[in-house]
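User: Predict the complex with manganese (II) ion.
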Amino acid sequence: MKEDSAQKKLLDALSFEVRSAWDRLGSEQLHQVFSFAEDYKAFLTQAKTEREANHYILTKAEKQGFVPAEKLSGKLRPGTKLYFGNRGRSSALVVIGQKPIVDGFRLVGSHIDSPRLDLKARPLYEEDGLVLFKTQYYGGIKKYQWPVQPLALHGIVVLTNGERINLCLGEEPGDPVFCVTDLLPHLAYEQMDKKAKDVVTGEALNIVVGNLPYLEDLDVKERVKLNILRLLHDTYGIKEEDLVSADIAAVPAGAARDVGFDRSLIGAYGQDDRVCAYASLQGFMDIAVPELTAICLFADREEVGSMGNTGARSRFLENVVAELVSREEIGSTDLGVRRALAKGEALSADVNAALDPSYAEVSDKRNSARLGYGINLTKYTGGRGKGGASEASAEFMAKIRQLLNAHSIPWQPGDLGKVDEGGGGTIAQFLADLGMDVLDAGVPILSMHSPFELASKVDVYAAYRAYKVFWDPEK
Ligand code: MN
Ligand code: MN
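Assistant: Here is the predicted structure with manganese (II) ion placed in the model:
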């Protein structure tokens, strides 16, 4: 008996076991986990594009006292809250720290774009009595997941005079929705023999938008299309050519939902990566005056490689740091920017795949995150021989592990699938390119990149707490 307990003590002292994050909650915290999820679901329901997410973020930040950087002049005092917007599609929030920024800063960076169907430049056409929109998918989707489900249209049309027309149709209870069709099983013998990637082709992802002909004149050609054009003009004041200068996406319609009898999970479109965006935003709102300047970055274009002037590969972040350096007494120098970046520490806040019991064969069970076990720390991304990997150093990993342990925040190590199974990346590599120490830290997800992604409420809350203490360890 005595021996057993000595062995158990030794086991507890030496072995590493990840405990369920649910088991680590007190009743007060359990309540917080669920109430945090309510606001998170509301965010997911109303922010389905990077523009909508960015608008939500900046509106919230302004309410909490963040001021546009261009409105502040002179030296920035510790505790000053400011933000940098980038074309309505990405942004950076900043809280000035007690130490000068050349001593470093702490950044949490997520992305606010998600896979979707974008309208082509000339989307509208009529065929066989139907009017449809041509689309091009954005990001890595399994194309067969998108037909036969209600879609909403979100986006903007910009007229030649610069006027912006907002469009959001398919979300309110009385709204019409849109959809991509699929073949009936009776005629799908050939389709069912195809490889999954060919079952639905990119050019078949056409969205049904109408069937009612223009009734006032039976002689005109393409009467259904004409009727849709008339409706678009009457409702939005737009003509067919205006669709050339539009960013309109079709996304899964409807609200984020609780999943499970116990309501422990959240099912919704776009949790990659708006779950980390939301958790970091909430964490950022709760920090006081940090020792080091804190930055909360929201990037666009991650799902297509982070290119473009709103993506993480752009100069946006460097420009933000340059602006901050320029406000310090030591003055504005290129060297100051480089020093700040080289001392910067970052969490790349992005989701990673959780172990799916129905598809366990693609994962190394011992090195996969599981839903409900806390924020997932991914030391390196990339597949096979770590090709294209961003890898956190042992030193930085240790620092974050220590921080989370000290605050009793549940975390788990987890990689993306088996070594030779595939792979993926985040914005971590682009932050590392600038000189920062970076670690991927985010919420584990099931059904990633699908129209209905699954996350555990306890992991979302763990991420929120982790980001908050990373910026402000005293909190
Ligand atoms: Mn992501
Ligand atoms: Mn993704």
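Residues 116-252 form a domain with the Aminopeptidase i, Domain 2 fold (CATH 2.30.250.10).
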